[in-house]
Amino acid sequence: MDPIIEVDNVTTVLGGHVIHRGLNLTVHRGEVIALIGGSGSGKTTLLRLMLGLDVPREGTVKIFGHPLGRCAARDLECVRYRWGALFQHGALFSALSVFDNIALPLRELKSVPPALLKPLVMLKLAQVGLKPEDAAKQPSELSGGMVKRVSLARALILDPQLLFLDEPTAGLDPDSAKQFVKLLRKLRQELGLTVVMVTHDVDTLFAVVDRVAVLADQHIIASAPLSEVARLPHPFVRNFFLGHVERCAEEDVKRFRLSLDDTSDEGGVPAVLRDEANV
Ligand SMILES: Nc1ncnc2c1ncn2[C@@H]1O[C@H](COP(=O)(O)OP(=O)(O)OP(=O)(O)O)[C@@H](O)[C@H]1O
C-alpha cells in the first residue's frame, strides 16, 4: 500500500509539556482514518504536525514522501496544494460571502483565470449539496451544517488528494451530522480521497472510517479497524465505546454501511458536473 503520510518516532513538546513521545502513524492512499483520544491527548496537535503548522522536537513527518520542515519552500508549496483542511467551527471569514470564502484558495494561487473562478466555485457548491443561490450568502446567514459544507467546499476547491478534518460533525444536530457523514462517504467514493479526521463521534466512525488510530499515553496505542479497536482493554477505549462495542462488529458495520448506500442521498457531484469536471 502506498503511504501518503508517515509520522515516524515523533516527540512533540508544547509549553514545556511533552505531548507526543515516540509516536508513529502511517496513512495509506485512499483510506479514511480517524484519530480518537481523550481531551488534551494531542490529536489536534498531531493534525497540525501533519499540516506543517507545528514542528516536532524529534522525529519526522512526511507527506507524499516530502519531510515537512526539511524540504525546500517550493517543494512544500507543491505539497501544500495537494491537501485541504476543514478546521473545527468551519473557520469561515465572516466578512466574505460564501462564494468568496470558497474562491479564496483559487485567488491565492493567482494562476487561475478569473473567468474560471465562477464555474469552479459553483461546481464545489453543488458537490457539497448546496444551492447556487447560497453563494451570495454571508456566513452569518448559514446554519451549522451549511457552515461545515461551505468549509468543505473550500477545502476541496483545489481538488486535493488528501483531506484533514478536525471534528467535522462537532456542534451539528444529529440529523445534520448524519447528512454530513453521508456526504463524506459520497465524496470519498467519487473523488478517491485519503481522509484523516479527528472525531469524538462514534456514529461517524461507524459510517465512514476504515481504520481508527487511538492516541493515548502520548503515542498511538492502536491503529486498526473499528471492530478490533472497540474491544481494546485500555480505559480510554472502554469509556469511548461504552454501550457501542456490539454494534462495532465487522458484519454489523458492513450491513449498516450498505443500508446507508441504499438510501437516497443529497449532496455529492451531480453526474453532469462530474462529466464537465473531467473534460
Ligand atoms: N500552543 C500551545 N502551547 C502550549 N500548550 C499547548 C499548545 N497547544 C496545545 N497545547 C496543549 O497540548 C495538549 C494537547 O492539545 P490538543 O489540542 O492537541 O489536544 P486534543 O487531543 O486535540 O484535545 P481536544 O479533544 O480537547 O480538542 C493540551 O494539553 C493543550 O493544552
Characteristics of this structure?
alpha/beta, 10 strands, ABC_transporter-like_ATP-bd, nucleotide-binding, Rossmann fold, 40% helix, ATP binding, binds adenosine-5'-triphosphate, 279 residues, 4-stranded antiparallel β-sheet, Phospholipid/cholesterol/gamma-HCH transport system ATP-binding protein, transport, disordered C terminus
Topology (elements, then pairings):
Elements: E1 3-14, E2 17-28, E3 32-37, H1 43-50, E4 58-63, E5 66-67, H2 73-80, E6 83-86, H3 98-109, H4 114-127, H5 144-156, E7 162-166, H6 174-191, E8 194-198, H7 202-208, E9 211-216, E10 219-224, H8 226-229, H9 235-240, H10 250-262, H11 271-278
Adenosine-5'-triphosphate (ATP) is lined by residues 14-15, 19, 37, 39-45.
